[in-house]
């Protein structure tokens, strides 16, 4: 999808005008369906099939589609969400740890400032009223259009004691892809973090042995980033080539 | 060949002393003078029959004792997650079913659950589709456990267990073939329901199959449970207690063998599991033997669920198996032809001969796919090997912006080091088998 992504001008921040002027069908749908209190336009795509300029014979050149992610929620969040949010912010030196809270589709996401991540994870695991003792998954997402916030790392934490599930999200810019490791708190994150390093190039500071895990050790690049193409890798057979399948047109 | 003819062999000087690299030549040809002890680093795999596929274990051994064990993975990495970003949401099922190929329905189920949650249609999926899903998941749990027991037995030299396991798995694969048309890589679950309803006569085949399995499953208990060799190899091997399991993220039979009844089917029910009558099996033996017994007992519980599903399917005959929303539901319902795969003749007649609009609708939905509102979700279900999770991110388009799978084999495999170190070389094989990793799922 990286090839569809077009710079959206100098100011990617959403304005009210963007929201009101966009009558597109999808936007209406999203506004109806998402439970989020507020919506955030993170990108605007133009045209169709990723074709731009004179090559566009589709007749859809004037199409504008904003990419709208669920935005920040404001307290009270309802149910146990408030307990967890307050208890989390009440930890030692964690008053400013939460950047924002997003509630969408029955799931709560805490955006954590990256310098507070390690302490937050430790507090979430050890506080008896939080007790998120199980780190289910660590996953990376690359948003190339979010300038200064390109790399997101998502932690799925489960409290088996209280039967709750939350998500932590930490962002880092492409220029400085460092995020503190949570391996000291959750040893299970070892391989997960290695995978995120391998696939997205996020450097986890404090990881015991941050090496590639799925790709060969000498592999150049980080394959699941959006600027890394699918296919087109030289193969070790005489005359063999793999055409990049992402040349196919896509509905932007 | 001597050590000097081989470009990969030779001696390397390191701060810890000389390291001799050997690649398979005769032991006597290696110049090992001045070495104290038998401190060896051995690659077990990635092509080793006892490592469940292409797992590479890097073992540091002193004689027969394991000093250190590390798992090297990635030899079966196929870029499934990356590929899914270039296909529609519906086509994603075809990719993710190939991850853990021994339990394909779990992969499909967790993915379609994620897509349905993103679409907000979780509660709109018809009851009959949910019953079919539960039935397939439980049959798959039995077939996956049978593979775990069969291959685990084979690695101990218990070939009878292996032949019995694969014989009985065949019963289930035949049922899968009857219902989905394929023995594995089904792509049968779709966002909004399942690809097609049960074919004629499937319920009778299911009843016969379950009855046959009911008769045969006790054979494993009779053959293994009190078998002195079996117990001698498994008891006390691969020990991992509850604290170790939680720290390392281990779920599934290894976690339940510590006595903790964490099973998402009960704790966080999905697909209507709360309406079925079954027990979560636990044991207080956190070793390979406990895990074997858990799998054995879980198979009986799964058959109990399958029997309840068959009753419910008989009662819901003719009900829809796909959501009513035509903007999401796959436009055609395929039928099984004489050759085991088939088209949908009625649908083709409709779109080609009767309705231009239906043709446009079909074309748009099949080529472009449906749009999914932007946002992210994480769903998890209980696969035969543990908790499988799917983190799906949408940007509002017709393809996943990101799909990540938390595969239970990937996470559980991390615990092999903790299980093996300090033990004997032969116990490594038992410990790996007790985790039951499938490399297709580990490497994705």
From TrEMBL, chain A:
<dbReference type="InterPro" id="IPR010218">
    <property type="entry name" value="NADH_DH_suC"/>
</dbReference>
<dbReference type="InterPro" id="IPR001268">
    <property type="entry name" value="NADH_UbQ_OxRdtase_30kDa_su"/>
</dbReference>
<feature type="compositionally biased region" description="Basic and acidic residues">
    <location>
        <begin position="16"/>
        <end position="37"/>
    </location>
</feature>
<keyword id="KW-0472">Membrane</keyword>
<comment type="function">
    <text>NDH-1 shuttles electrons from NADH, via FMN and iron-sulfur (Fe-S) centers, to quinones in the respiratory chain. The immediate electron acceptor for the enzyme in this species is believed to be a menaquinone. Couples the redox reaction to proton translocation (for every two electrons transferred, four hydrogen ions are translocated across the cytoplasmic membrane), and thus conserves the redox energy in a proton gradient.</text>
</comment>
<dbReference type="GO" id="GO:0008137">
    <property type="term" value="F:NADH dehydrogenase (ubiquinone) activity"/>
</dbReference>
<keyword id="KW-1278">Translocase</keyword>
<dbReference type="GO" id="GO:0048038">
    <property type="term" value="F:quinone binding"/>
</dbReference>
<feature type="region of interest" description="Disordered">
    <location>
        <begin position="1"/>
        <end position="37"/>
    </location>
</feature>
<dbReference type="GO" id="GO:0005886">
    <property type="term" value="C:plasma membrane"/>
</dbReference>
<keyword id="KW-0520">NAD</keyword>
<keyword id="KW-0813">Transport</keyword>
<feature type="domain" description="NADH:ubiquinone oxidoreductase 30kDa subunit">
    <location>
        <begin position="112"/>
        <end position="232"/>
    </location>
</feature>
<keyword id="KW-0560">Oxidoreductase</keyword>
<dbReference type="InterPro" id="IPR037232">
    <property type="entry name" value="NADH_quin_OxRdtase_su_C/D-like"/>
</dbReference>
<keyword id="KW-1003">Cell membrane</keyword>
<dbReference type="Pfam" id="PF00329">
    <property type="entry name" value="Complex1_30kDa"/>
</dbReference>
<protein>
    <recommendedName>
        <fullName>NADH-quinone oxidoreductase subunit C</fullName>
        <ecNumber>7.1.1.-</ecNumber>
    </recommendedName>
</protein>
<keyword id="KW-0874">Quinone</keyword>
<comment type="subunit">
    <text>NDH-1 is composed of 14 different subunits. Subunits NuoB, C, D, E, F, and G constitute the peripheral sector of the complex.</text>
</comment>
<dbReference type="GO" id="GO:0050136">
    <property type="term" value="F:NADH dehydrogenase (quinone) (non-electrogenic) activity"/>
</dbReference>
<comment type="similarity">
    <text>Belongs to the complex I 30 kDa subunit family.</text>
</comment>
TrEMBL record, chain B:
<dbReference type="GO" id="GO:0050136">
    <property type="term" value="F:NADH dehydrogenase (quinone) (non-electrogenic) activity"/>
</dbReference>
<dbReference type="GO" id="GO:0048038">
    <property type="term" value="F:quinone binding"/>
</dbReference>
<comment type="function">
    <text>NDH-1 shuttles electrons from NADH, via FMN and iron-sulfur (Fe-S) centers, to quinones in the respiratory chain. The immediate electron acceptor for the enzyme in this species is believed to be a menaquinone. Couples the redox reaction to proton translocation (for every two electrons transferred, four hydrogen ions are translocated across the cytoplasmic membrane), and thus conserves the redox energy in a proton gradient.</text>
</comment>
<keyword id="KW-1003">Cell membrane</keyword>
<keyword id="KW-0472">Membrane</keyword>
<keyword id="KW-0874">Quinone</keyword>
<keyword id="KW-0520">NAD</keyword>
<keyword id="KW-0813">Transport</keyword>
<comment type="similarity">
    <text>Belongs to the complex I 49 kDa subunit family.</text>
</comment>
<feature type="domain" description="NADH-quinone oxidoreductase subunit D">
    <location>
        <begin position="156"/>
        <end position="444"/>
    </location>
</feature>
<keyword id="KW-0560">Oxidoreductase</keyword>
<dbReference type="InterPro" id="IPR022885">
    <property type="entry name" value="NDH1_su_D/H"/>
</dbReference>
<protein>
    <recommendedName>
        <fullName>NADH-quinone oxidoreductase subunit D</fullName>
        <ecNumber>7.1.1.-</ecNumber>
    </recommendedName>
</protein>
<comment type="subunit">
    <text>NDH-1 is composed of 14 different subunits. Subunits NuoB, C, D, E, F, and G constitute the peripheral sector of the complex.</text>
</comment>
<dbReference type="InterPro" id="IPR029014">
    <property type="entry name" value="NiFe-Hase_large"/>
</dbReference>
<dbReference type="InterPro" id="IPR001135">
    <property type="entry name" value="NADH_Q_OxRdtase_suD"/>
</dbReference>
<keyword id="KW-1278">Translocase</keyword>
<dbReference type="Pfam" id="PF00346">
    <property type="entry name" value="Complex1_49kDa"/>
</dbReference>
<dbReference type="InterPro" id="IPR014029">
    <property type="entry name" value="NADH_UbQ_OxRdtase_49kDa_CS"/>
</dbReference>
<dbReference type="GO" id="GO:0051287">
    <property type="term" value="F:NAD binding"/>
</dbReference>
<dbReference type="GO" id="GO:0005886">
    <property type="term" value="C:plasma membrane"/>
</dbReference>
<feature type="region of interest" description="Disordered">
    <location>
        <begin position="1"/>
        <end position="20"/>
    </location>
</feature>
């Amino acid at each position: 999808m990286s090839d569809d992504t077009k710079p959206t001008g100098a100011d990617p921040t959403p304005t009210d005008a963007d929201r009101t002027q966009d009558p597109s069908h999808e936007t209406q749908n999203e506004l109806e369906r998402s439970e989020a209190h507020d919506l955030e336009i993170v990108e605007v795509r133009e045209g169709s099939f990723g074709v731009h300029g004179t090559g566009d014979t589709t007749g859809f050149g004037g199409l504008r589609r904003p990419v709208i992610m669920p935005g920040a929620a404001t307290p009270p969040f309802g149910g146990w969400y408030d307990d967890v949010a307050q208890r989390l912010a009440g930890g030692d030196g964690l008053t400013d740890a939460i950047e924002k809270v997003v509630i969408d589709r029955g799931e709560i996401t805490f955006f954590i400032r990256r310098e507070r991540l390690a302490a937050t994870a430790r507090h979430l695991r050890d506080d008896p009223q939080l007790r998120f003792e199980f780190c289910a998954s660590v996953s990376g997402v690359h948003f190339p259009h979010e300038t200064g916030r390109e790399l997101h790392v998502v932690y799925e934490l489960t409290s088996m004691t209280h039967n709750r599930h939350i998500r932590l999200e930490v962002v880092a810019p492409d220029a400085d892809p460092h995020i503190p490791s949570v391996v000291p708190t959750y040893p299970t994150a070892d391989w997960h973090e290695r995978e995120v390093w391998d696939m997205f190039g996020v450097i986890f500071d404090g990881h015991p042995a941050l090496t590639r895990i799925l790709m060969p050790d000498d592999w150049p690049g980080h394959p699941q980033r959006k600027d890394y193409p699918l296919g087109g890798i030289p193969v070790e057979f005489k005359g063999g080539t793999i055409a990049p399948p992402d040349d196919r047109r896509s509905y932007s | 060949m001597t050590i000097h003819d081989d470009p990969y062999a030779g001696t390397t000087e390191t701060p810890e002393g000389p390291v001799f690299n050997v690649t398979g030549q005769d032991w006597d040809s290696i110049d090992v003078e001045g070495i104290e002890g038998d401190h060896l680093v051995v690659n077990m795999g990635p092509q080793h029959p006892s490592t469940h596929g292409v797992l590479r274990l890097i073992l540091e051994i002193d004689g027969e004792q394991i000093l250190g064990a590390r798992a090297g993975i990635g030899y079966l990495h196929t870029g499934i997650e990356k590929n899914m970003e270039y296909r529609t949401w519906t086509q994603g099922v075809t990719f993710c079913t190939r991850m853990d190929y021994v339990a394909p329905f779990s992969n499909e189920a967790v993915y379609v659950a994620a897509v349905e949650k993103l679409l907000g249609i979780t509660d709109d999926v018809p009851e009959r589709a949910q019953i079919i899903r539960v039935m397939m998941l439980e049959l798959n749990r039995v077939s996956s456990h049978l593979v775990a027991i069969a291959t685990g037995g084979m690695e101990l030299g218990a070939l009878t267990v292996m032949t019995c396991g694969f014989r009985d798995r065949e019963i289930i694969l035949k049922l899968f073939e009857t219902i989905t048309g394929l023995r594995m890589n089904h792509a049968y679950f779709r966002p909004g329901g399942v690809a097609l309803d049960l074919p004629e006569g499937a319920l009778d085949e299911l009843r016969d199959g379950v009855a046959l399995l009911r008769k045969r499953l006790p054979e494993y208990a009779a053959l293994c449970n009190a078998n002195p060799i079996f117990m001698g190899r498994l008891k006390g091997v691969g020990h991992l207690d509850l604290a170790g399991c939680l720290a390392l993220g281990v779920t599934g039979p290894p976690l339940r063998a510590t006595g903790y009844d964490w099973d998402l089917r009960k704790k966080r029910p999905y697909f209507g599991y709360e309406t079925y009558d079954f027990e979560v099996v636990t044991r207080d033996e956190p070793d390979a033997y406990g895990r074997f017994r858990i799998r054995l007992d879980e198979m009986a519980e799964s058959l109990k669920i399958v029997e309840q599903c068959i009753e419910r399917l008989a009662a819901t005959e003719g009900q829809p198996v796909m959501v009513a929303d035509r903007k999401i539901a796959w436009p055609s319902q395929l039928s099984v032809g004489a050759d085991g795969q088939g088209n949908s003749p009625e649908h083709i007649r409709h779109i080609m001969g009767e309705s231009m609009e239906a043709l446009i609708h079909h074309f748009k939905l099949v080529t472009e796919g449906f749009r999914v509102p932007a946002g992210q979700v994480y769903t998890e279900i209980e696969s035969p090997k543990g908790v499988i999770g799917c983190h799906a991110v949408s940007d509002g388009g017709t393809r996943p912006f990101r799909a990540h799978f938390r595969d239970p084999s990937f996470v559980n495999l991390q615990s092999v080091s903790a299980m093996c170190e300090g033990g004997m070389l032969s116990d490594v094989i038992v410990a790996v088998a007790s985790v039951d990793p499938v490399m297709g799922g580990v490497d994705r």
